[in-house]
Amino acid sequence: QPVIQLREIEKIYQTKTIETVALNRVNLTINKGEFVSIMGPSGCGKSTLLSIMGLLDEPSGGVIELDGRPVQAYSDRELAALRNQKIGFVFQSYHLINDLSVLDNVELPLLYRPGVGGKQRRERAYAALDKVGLSARTGHFPSQLSGGQRQRVAIARALAGRPEIILADEPTGNLDSVMGEEIMELLLNLNRQEGTTIVMVTHDEQQARRTQRLIRFFDGSQVS
Ligand code: ADP
Ligand code: ADP
């Protein structure tokens, strides 16, 4: 059952003097419950692909379908809700807010969510932090945590939104192998136990081999 389908997706970045084709007619289907990894050299379009899948960026051409329905068929309001509720993002550099506590960082994406009040927000944040093993660090600030712990906070923040899909852009890229392994285990468990669909960009062949499907990119196109 497809959750995200890309059909002939193109992305062209235009600056004054150069035109970069970041994605060249990409066709790709992500099915419900899959854990897919994406590999390829720097600059081949992996981050662009994730941003487009996550509706953070618009393609220059082609069609994106979510749950079998073209994105164009959704209203702006529906799309904003989908972006917020259906999809969780995890980045290489964590993107935490340094002067908010761990708990406040995790609650943040729920602040403007309709139907989730303060008490529920807090409960969900605690539950998410429990899942990533950070219940004892809720009052800490990001600067007081290791890289691996910071990434776990970022994953908890994504989980608090209860996303169906997690898009992770080199989630272990800034971590040593031990902490990277922890994060990988966490993602594998989420996928197995909760059925969360995951698309992960990685440079680590060993990690990629543990996922269900490996897609290789080169120069804006899928090569295998
Ligand atoms: P990857 O994630 O595989 O390293 P990216 O998706 O970041 O690749 O980039 C693909 C190509 O598009 C690269 O050539 C990059 O320089 C270019 N690119 C990415 N974002 C922009 C942008 N905002 N403006 C111009 N060029 C961009
Ligand atoms: P990551 O940590 O995911 O590898 P990057 O360093 O590839 O992130 O890119 C960070 C941001 O810079 C992205 O939003 C991307 O779109 C933008 N970017 C990447 N390459 C270029 C470029 N050549 N020109 C302008 N913006 C770019």
Can you give me a brief rundown of this structure?
Helix 4 crosses helix 5 and helix 5 runs parallel beside helix 6. Strand 9 and strand 10 form a beta hairpin. 33% of the residues lie in helices and 28% in strands.
Describe this structure in words.
This protein is α/β, with parallel strands linked by helices. The chain has helices at 46-53, 76-85, 102-107, 118-131, 147-160, 177-194, 205-209; strands at residues 2-14, 19-31, 35-39, 61-66, 69-70, 87-91, 165-169, 197-201, 213-218, 221-222. A hairpin with a 2-residue loop joins strand 9 (213-218) and strand 10 (221-222). The longest helix has 18 residues, at 177-194. The site of one adenosine-5'-diphosphate has 11 residues, from strand 2 and helix 1. One of its GO terms (cellular component) is plasma membrane. Belongs to the ABC transporter superfamily. Macrolide exporter (TC 3.A.1.122) family. Keywords: ATP-binding, Nucleotide-binding, Transport. This is ABC transporter ATP-binding protein.
Task: Show the helix and strand layout.
Blueprint lengths: L1 E13 L4 E13 L3 E5 L6 H8 L7 E6 L2 E2 L5 H10 L1 E5 L10 H6 L10 H14 L15 H14 L4 E5 L7 H18 L2 E5 L3 H5 L3 E6 L2 E2 L2
The kinds of small molecule bound in this structure are: adenosine-5'-diphosphate
Q: Count the helices. How many?
A: 7
Largest sheet: 6 strands, mixed
Determine the N-to-C terminus distance: 21 Å
Q: Helical percent range?
A: 25-40%
Q: Biggest sheet, strands in spatial order?
A: 6-7-8-3-9-10
Q: Could you report the average pLDDT, rounded to the nearest whole number?
A: 95
